[in-house]
Design a protein that fits this description.
Elements (H helix, E strand, L loop, with lengths): L4 E5 L21 E5 L19 E5 L7 E9 L4 E7 L5 E9 L3 E3 L7 E2 L8 E2 L10 E2 L6 E2 L39 E2 H7 L9 H10 L3 E5 L9 H17 L3 E4 L12 H11 L6 E3 L24 E3 L9 E3 L1 E3 L4 E3 L2 E4 L5 H8 L2 H5 L2 E5 L28 E4 L5 E6 L9 E6 L16 E6 L5 E7 L7 E2 L4 H6 L1 E2 L1 E3 L2 E3 L4 E2 L4 E7 H6 L4 H12 L3 E7 L2 H6 L19 H12 L6 H20 L1 H6 L1 H6 L6 E11 L8 E4 L4 E9 L11 H5 L1 H7 L23 E9 L2 E9 L4 E7 L2 E2 L5 H12 L3 H8 E2 L6 H4 L2 H8 L6 H73 L13 H81 L34 H93 L1 H65 L4 H25 L3 E7 L5 E8 L5 E4 L6 H21 L3 E3 L1 E5 L7 H15 L18 E5 L2 H6 L6 E8 L2 E5 L6
Parallel strand pairs: 12-19, 13-14, 14-15, 15-18, 20-21, 21-22, 22-24, 27-32, 28-31, 32-33, 34-45, 36-47, 36-48, 41-46, 46-47
Antiparallel strand pairs: 1-2, 3-4, 3-7, 4-5, 5-6, 8-11, 9-10, 13-25, 16-17, 19-20, 23-24, 25-26, 29-30, 34-35, 34-37, 37-38, 38-39, 39-40, 42-43, 43-44, 48-49
Helix pairs in contact: 3-4, 11-12, 12-24, 18-26, 21-24, 22-23, 23-24, 25-26, 25-27
Protein name: Calcineurin-like phosphoesterase domain-containing protein
GO molecular function, one term: ATP hydrolysis activity
InterPro entries: Calcineurin-like_PHP, Metallo-depent_PP-like, P-loop_NTPase
Length: 1339
């Protein structure tokens, strides 16, 4: 327990200047007062270790009604204490009592849980090294409750739980003593106390005085600086400084300056520090939860900002002096008669701060807090925060944390005329971070400290950052127009949009279809998009459409925000709104929802979760909306291009890229047209194939004559020019990235690739799936398995967060199960011990009753004899009594001493028995844990054996397939020496020739032999691996059995030791009984001697001896009974505690299993994917309608069983639609579906604003299509291109921003569509080198 006055030496901060009352560097040895208050020590008396001589209070009646003071005289076994009680006036009573430990309380314990500090005498401030004329005293402290825990303690008490209906709270305490109250700093008192100090010589006091002298303050919060928000955040910083300068004001920031906790990005930190160099106004900051790193919050990301800039002091005494501008408060701090409270995670500590005298005395509060009843967003109301009733009433309270600007109002005294109103105003973020914040009025506030910190001005922040608009109708969309410039100043209103803004209009599907004919809508959306505004048209199903059975109607229309625009916590809440009453009852759903929220918050708080789910958490924070325009690609030494070839890619319309191979063989194959078309993909992702892999696996890209491949892509990213250049040699890969004239190249290609993906806002797989469609990739989505299709959708709808939450839930469940098993084992051992102890106690109880009955009989006999003896000889001479009994008396005393010795020996033996058995029990627990570890290793080895066996069977299947393919017998495990390939190629069914063609016999023979040899080698390797895995299983099983046997041996050793010590105790007790019998014998001898002197005295002595023996026997029985009773009570409590712990672990196991299911593929992952599947089907069907003239339908849905179903329907002659398996579709029907699904997927990516590229590459998209089908594909591509430069009428046909569609076709298909192309380019290969002929007339 900390003393009431604690003087602590505070180390300087990282930059040598105070962050929490830290002294400046040249005063680093100064001592500062850390205020603390008295604390109660009676919360858990079981932790008090009293000693003999301690003064305690005794609860006489065990109900708290009569407390008597006493002094501990002896500490006995089983939790019993012997006390000497004091009289009412404080004197000694000389009365000794025996009480249990539970009846004792420290005599100095305070009975109140709330302590008032003496503000005049208890707290004194000693500034030893400041030039003081006299010590400064009477620095006000605070009033706190003792339920709070230390900020830096790893174990925090559970916060008080408050409901909205009352102000009562209940606190759950643990077994630890209450921690000291939190530190609070009163800087106003420090400034008042420093009146006689030469303040101008102390920089810290100068800084405090300067900041305290500022009257007006511009306040903002929740900036959330991150790579995706950096540009917007810097604009906010510049605007705040500009507004503060204009008003001669300071700046207050209320937390969450950074977004990612734990690690600061160097580029973000440097940009912020550079921006702050321009500042000239003072600033006060408190850290929010995103800024903090440690549990107590004292280590945070605001520390590097403390010396970011300096301001000039204009006071007369310090004119021209510069001081640090930022002042960071990491502890609750009072300055300017306002209390600044950083984020405090422990609610009990937060409540103690808010209820302190310091908080009650301030005119205003500035906090970063979660308040019960506040809106986390438009959907969720906080239920687990600080209750509003805890805050002081009738004063301004401003808070950060939640992004929606709103006010929480609470009336404390609703039934009285004396209204005490609590108003907590959330200022909200200064810019919109997601669609969920659309139409929120973002603003800064200006406060006047001289007017009680009241708001005197609100400054709208409508022109910084991306704005989101959700018009409720088409008419509202048409009312939106681009911001105009008046006198070179942008004018922003609720109906104006600017470049980078986002508009999302949700309409019934049938209304969306009519938009193609709406010229006004087409012109308006085209103008908005040309101005850089993202316009998204979303389809929603009406109830009428669902009843009509429209195949595209797969979801109900809701006015709420779409799932993809919600935060993880909001999505989790929306999921449970649907689940209640479905798969879960209300109580179970509420419990799982709350547990899931805690788990998600835990993931957010943990550093690992922050790094693993950063993309998910940043998705709702100004997620990057990428408009990617590719201008050109230049290749050199790449594939068949030995010399530099530059190829234009922007604004070329529908381009045919054909090839001519003048080196013989095929007319166009091998010319390099696909290589050129996909070169940009390789430059941007490191993959030459449309499906990206790591760069190190790229092969066959180096030209034979130039072993230095180089591909450069130029273009514009959201209007900013960029250049990406990738180079590769046989031993090295290089990657350079320039954006907007800035070199962003890092020290490795991998790190540069990460920068490219970050700036693009999308991953390499999305680039490949939306822009570059190879002839094999066109079928991948339609052919994809359920798992593969979900993997593709996860590129658009990130599932990493939910998968990570499920993994964490399963991990917690396994931990709980393991703990339960351990507890059950311990419980079984303790239960067995308790049964044995209970039997011993029952025998001791019966023995005690028998001894008491014997004593009663002896006392009756002695009383009767005494009465008879008095009647018989009342006149005996007393002078002659006992003179001949001295020697017997001395012998009897020695025998009694021997009895006491034996009693002590018995006690020592019992203590030794308990100590030995305790050590053995510890070893037994270790053996059991080792056995459990061995079992886990066995399970792991079994899994590896199953994996090896599966690999073996797979390779056997591969060998069988090779036997069938190449018609060869491989059963002996070797390739026959007389093996010859079939005359017909098993791959393409063409005859094998010897004319040097690609189907030449020698080439195929060599290919087949290599493939067979490789597979056989893999099979042999798998057999070896299987044998090794089998041996590992056997070794693990032997280890497990050995450990189990060792545990059994330890258990048997324990029984042997118990028997051995029981024998020692029994022998000692027998010796004790023997010594007592000796005492009885001496007593009888003494009586016999007395009989020889006087017959009457002898009889009386005999009775007294018998009575003494009976009393000793009763005392011994009572002591044994008491000891066993204490041990039994302790053991019963331990058993009950173990049972409760095991029950709690069972509950946690069940809860974690439920959370695992809810976070799993059949839970929320299915829930969040449903919208994506619905949108994908709607968009794909739109293209399929045009590809098939409405004759085909492709229905997709995500059923409750977690499977994405794909159903093909074909129109019959009578106009009805009949379902057909996908495998039975004709080649043309299949191609139409695959093309529609591919374009629908890319359109979905663009619709959700992730990527709107200017280029689409299609390699052989017309395969299997007839003339009409090829013509329909051409029309659709022209529709997509009709949106560029205001041409055509395809303004709402898709969400693409495509200006070039590059088609790679064979000659026959190209000739049929030649007139439809805007440009026809040709790649020519001659003498082993390729070059390109660009259609100059139209490009």
């Amino acid at each position: 327990m900390r003393p009431q006055h604690q003087w602590e030496t505070r180390k300087p901060s990282l930059f040598g200047y105070p962050s929490f009352l830290y002294p400046p560097p040249f005063h680093n040895t100064r001592l500062w007062l850390s205020f603390s208050s008295k604390s109660s020590s009676s919360d858990n008396n079981n932790n008090n270790n009293w000693t003999i001589g301690d003064t305690v209070l005794v609860d006489v009646h065990k109900d708290g009604s009569n407390m008597v003071q006493g002094v501990i005289q002896d500490i006995r076994k089983g939790g019993w204490y012997t006390l000497k009680l004091s009289s009412a006036d404080g004197g000694e009573q000389n009365q000794q009592v025996k009480v249990r430990k539970s009846q004792l309380t420290t005599a100095t314990t305070a009975t109140s849980t709330k302590l008032e500090s003496d503000t005049t005498t208890e707290n004194e401030l000693l500034l030893q090294q400041l030039p003081l004329e006299e010590p400064v005293q009477a620095i006000p402290a605070m009033t706190v409750t003792t339920e709070s825990s230390s900020d830096d303690s790893s174990t925090a008490t559970t916060a008080a739980t408050m409901t909205a209906d009352n102000d009562n709270s209940s606190t759950t305490t643990n077994n630890l003593p209450p921690p000291p109250p939190p530190r609070m700093d009163d800087l106003d008192a420090l400034l008042q106390a420093s009146d006689k100090i030469k303040a101008k010589e102390d920089p810290f006091l100068q800084q405090l005085a300067h900041h305290a002298s500022i009257a007006k303050w511009v306040v903002f919060t929740d900036l959330h600086v991150a790579p995706s928000t950096l540009e917007t955040s810097l604009a906010v910083i510049h605007r705040v400084h500009e507004l503060a300068q204009q008003r001669h004001a300071g700046v207050l920031f209320l937390g969450d300056f950074w977004h990612h906790r734990g690690t600061l990005r160097v580029d973000c930190l440097n940009a912020v520090l550079h921006a702050f160099r321009q500042w000239t106004v003072p600033m006060i900051l408190i850290p929010g939860n995103h800024d903090q790193v440690t549990l107590g919050g004292h280590s945070h990301g605001l520390t590097p900002l403390e010396q970011s800039y300096r301001v000039t002091v204009d006071h007369e005494d310090s004119s021209g002096t510069t001081i640090p501008g930022p002042l960071v408060f990491s502890h609750p701090t009072k300055l300017g008669n306002a209390l600044f409270v950083p984020h405090i995670r422990d609610l009990a500590i937060m409540e103690s701060v808010l209820q302190s005298d310091m908080a009650q005395s301030c005119q205003a509060l500035f906090v970063h807090a979660d308040v019960t009843g506040a809106y986390m967003n438009d959907m969720i109301v906080s239920t687990g925060g600080v209750h509003p009733s805890v805050f002081p009433s009738n004063r301004p309270i401003y808070s950060g944390h939640f992004h929606k600007p709103h006010t929480v109002i609470h009336n404390k005294n609703k039934k009285t005329a004396d209204t005490q109103e609590v108003c907590i105003e959330y200022l909200g973020s200064p810019y919109e971070t997601s669609l969920a914040e659309a139409h929120q009025e973002k603003a800064l506030v200006v406060l006047d400290a001289t007017q009680g910190w009241k708001c005197i001005e609100r400054i709208p922040m409508n022109d910084i950052g991306r704005k989101h608009f959700k018009p409720q109708s088409l008419d509202e969309l048409l009312e939106l127009h681009v911001t105009t410039l008046e006198n070179n100043v942008a004018t922003a209103t609720k109906k104006t949009v600017k470049e980078g803004d986002r508009i999302v209009l949700t309409l019934p599907r049938r209304e969306v279809r009519d938009l193609d004919e709406n010229t006004l809508f087409q012109d308006h959306t085209r103008a908005l998009r040309q101005a850089g505004v993202a316009v998204e048209i979303r389809e929603a199903t009406t109830t009428a459409e669902a009843q009509e059975g429209d195949p595209a109607s797969v979801a109900e229309t809701t006015g709420a925000t779409s799932l993809e625009d919600l935060s993880p916590l909001s999505t989790w809440a929306r999921f449970w709104e649907v689940q209640q009453g479905a798969d879960y009852d209300e109580e179970e759903a509420m419990a799982l929802q709350e547990a899931g929220l805690r788990l998600l918050e835990e993931m957010e708080e943990s550093e690992d979760a922050t790094s693993s789910s950063s993309k998910s958490t940043e998705g709702s924070l100004l997620a990057t909306k990428t408009n990617l325009q590719l201008d050109s690609v230049a290749v050199e030494g790449y594939g068949p291009f030995p010399t530099r070839v530059e190829y234009p890619l922007n604004d070329r319309g529908l381009v045919l890229l054909k090839g001519t191979n003048l080196d013989g063989g095929s007319d166009s194959n091998g010319s390099g047209k696909t290589t050129l078309a996909m070169a940009a993909l390789w430059a941007m992702t490191g993959s030459a194939d449309p499906r990206p892999f790591q760069d190190s696996k790229v092969v066959d890209i180096l030209n034979d004559s130039n072993q230095n491949a180089r591909v450069s892509v130029t273009g514009h990213l959201n209007g900013k020019p960029f250049v990406i250049t990738r180079t590769k040699t046989p031993k090295k890969t290089g990657l350079a990235f320039f954006l907007d004239g800035q070199d962003l190249t890092t020290q490795s290609a991998k790190e540069t690739m990460a920068v490219i993906e970050e700036k693009l806002g999308v991953s390499a797989p999305i680039l490949a799936r939306t822009m570059f469609h190879g002839q094999h990739a066109l079928n991948e989505l339609l052919e994809a398995t359920d798992a593969k299709l979900k993997e593709e959708l996860s590129l658009i709808v990130p599932l990493e967060l939910w998968q990570g939450a499920g993994t964490m839930a399963r991990s917690k469940g396994r931990t709980a199960t393991k703990k339960e098993n351990e507890l059950q084992g311990m419980l079984a051992l303790r239960t067995d011990d308790m049964e044995k102890l209970q039997n011993r106690f029952n025998r001791a109880d019966a023995d005690l009753k028998e001894k008491v009955e014997i004593l009663r009989v002896r006392e009756a006999e002695a009383k009767s004899f005494s009465a008879k003896q008095q009647q018989a000889d009342g006149g005996e001479d007393e002078a002659t009594k006992g003179k001949s009994l001295d020697s017997l008396r001395r012998s009897l005393e020695e025998a009694n001493s021997l009895v006491e010795t034996h009693q002590n020996h018995v006690s020592h033996l019992k203590e030794g028995r308990a100590s030995v058995l305790k050590d053995i029990d510890g070893g037994l627990r270790i053996q059991m844990q080792s056995a459990q570890t061995a079992a886990e290793q066995l399970q792991k080895a079994q899994l590896e054996h199953q994996s090896a066996n599966y690999e073996m069977e797979t390779l056997k299947g591969a060998v069988g397939k090779l036997e069938k393919t190449w018609q060869v017998d491989l059963s002996v495990g070797e390739l026959p020496s007389a093996f010859n390939i079939p005359e017909i190629c098993p791959t393409c069914q063409q005859p094998v020739t010897n004319n040097g063609h690609e189907h030449a016999h020698e080439s195929l023979q060599e290919k087949a032999e290599d493939e067979i040899q490789a597979t056989l080698h893999s099979l042999a390797t798998a057999q070896t691996k299987l044998l090794g895995a089998r041996e590992a299983v056997e070794d693990a099983e032997l280890s497990r059995q050995k450990l189990q046997q060792e545990a059994q041996i330890v258990h048997e050793q324990r029984d042997e030791q118990a028997t051995y010590w029981d024998k020692l105790v029994s022998d000692a007790e027998e010796a004790l009984r023997s010594s007592r019998e000796q005492v009885a014998h001496l007593t009888q001898s003494y009586t016999a001697q007395a009989e020889r002197q006087q017959e009457a005295a002898l009889a009386q002595s005999k009775l007294e001896a018998q009575l003494n023996t009976a009393r000793q026997a009763v005392e011994f029985a009572k002591e044994a009974h008491g000891n066993l009773s204490g041990e039994l009570e302790t053991l019963k409590a331990a058993v009950e505690d173990l049972g409760a712990q095991a029950k709690e672990q069972r509950r946690l196991t069940k809860q974690c299993a439920g959370l695992s299911d809810a976070f799993g593929t059949r839970g929320i992952q299915t829930f969040v994917l449903q919208n994506a599947v619905r949108d994908l089907q709607c968009l794909s069907q739109k293209y399929l309608d045009d590809f098939s003239d409405g004759a085909q339908r492709l229905q997709m849905s995500l059923d409750a069983g977690d499977k994405i179903s794909r159903r093909a329907l074909v129109r019959e002659p009578d106009g009805s639609f009949r379902e057909r398996p996908l495998a039975t579709l004709s080649g043309g029907q299949w191609r139409r579906c695959s093309l529609a699904l591919t374009l629908g997927f890319a359109d979905l990516v663009a619709t959700r604003g992730r990527l709107r590229p200017s280029l689409i590459v299609l390699d052989e998209p017309l395969t299997h299509l007839d003339r009409a089908g090829r013509r329909d594909v051409g029309k659709v591509l022209q529709k997509i291109l009709g949106q560029r430069d205001g041409a055509g009428s395809g303004g709402s046909y898709s969400n693409f921003a495509t200006s070039t569609i590059l088609l790679i076709l064979q000659d026959l298909a190209a000739e049929e569509l030649e007139e439809a192309f805007d440009c026809i380019d040709e790649v020519v290969k001659q003498n082993g080198a390729s070059f390109v002929k660009v259609d100059e007339s139209t490009s």
